[in-house]
Amino acid sequence: MKLPVVMQATLPIHDSADRFPVRRIFCVGRNYADHAREMGHDPDREPPFFFTKPADAVLTDDDDLPYPPASSDLHYEAELVVALGAGGTEIAPQDATAMIWGYAAGNDFTRRDLQAQAKKMGRPWDMAKGFDLSAAIGPLHPASQTGPMDKGRMQLLVNGDIRQDADLSQMIWPVADIISHLSGLVRLAPGDLIMTGTPAGVGAVTRGDQVTVRIEGLSPLSTRIT
Prior knowledge:
Shape: globular
Number of helices: 6
Structural class: alpha+beta
Helix content: 10-25%
Oligomer: single chain
């Protein structure tokens, strides 16, 4: 029997015809204090924790997102996405920035009703977070051009109305610390993406909504829910 041909997920690169190959997608939970409190948690007592999305969950090029099945409570979560160009284990925070290939605006779409049910039953979040096309990501900007993205305004708008409005400097765990901590759990590698968490203001969207993520210094990301 002939083996199937599997297409690798890729991300667009700003002002380039090339595309960035995606290996894995890691996501940081509760990395903004106001969002942690919004979800009923104490941000002062929790180290960073991680969950994952499949690489082929990426949604790029401002494509539409079909409303996912098995849910009636689809939420947006604006996030800074970090793409790694190098890897390793036990990486010191002071060495982490040199591993970053680039940055992009992202949206961690979540089936909130499935997540709430999983939390209540003590089960994994996979089906709430890792469904098809759940990782909307805009064009990557090389870190050599942006410099470190440790500050800058991040907004999410639904049909032009601002729903999330924060600054990257408000992260509980800065990007270098996230990379360092994660590298103590798994071996990181080129092509890995890290979605670095969302601020307060998460909420539901419905069919027909236009969701836009804007991060200072990066290309905007726009997604229409169909």
